[in-house]
Write a sequence for this structure.
């Protein structure tokens, strides 16, 4: 089972759909490893969390209290990545009517996303991110995993 943030799933699926290479990030987090697990088993059970997850655990930006110290400098006003991601995940879960800590198959989560696709794309497209790139990558990734 994966303990994972809802937006991390969407970022990974977008990356799969955009055919981004699987390489370890310089921060040491495990996006590449979790991506491999998702590709191998699109029905993997996921605990949907609003906190640092299996991806974040070894990241060098994670402090001893389990909080991300990274900053999203690309935004108009730089903000804490921890605060930004926590709010993003709360919004996604609330919109999809999912409680924090829910355990569900990844494929079921992706089916919910597809049922609410345009709204989910709007919620999770980061400022200064190309909306169409996210949209296309997410759609392609979901189709690759669910079919």
């Amino acid at each position: 089972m994966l303990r994972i943030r809802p937006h991390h799933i969407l970022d990974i699926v977008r990356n799969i759909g955009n055919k981004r290479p699987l390489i370890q990030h310089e921060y040491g987090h495990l996006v590449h490893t979790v991506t491999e697990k998702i590709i191998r088993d699109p029905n993997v059970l996921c605990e949907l969390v609003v906190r640092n997850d299996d991806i974040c655990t070894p990241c060098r930006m994670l402090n001893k209290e389990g909080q991300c110290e990274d900053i999203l400098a690309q935004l108009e006003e730089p903000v804490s990545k921890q605060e930004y991601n926590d709010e993003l995940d709360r919004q996604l879960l609330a919109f999809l009517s999912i409680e924090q800590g829910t355990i569900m198959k990844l494929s079921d989560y992706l089916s919910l996303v597809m049922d609410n696709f345009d709204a989910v794309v709007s919620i999770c497209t980061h400022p200064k991110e190309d909306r169409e790139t996210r949209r296309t990558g997410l759609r392609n990734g979901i189709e690759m995993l669910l079919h």
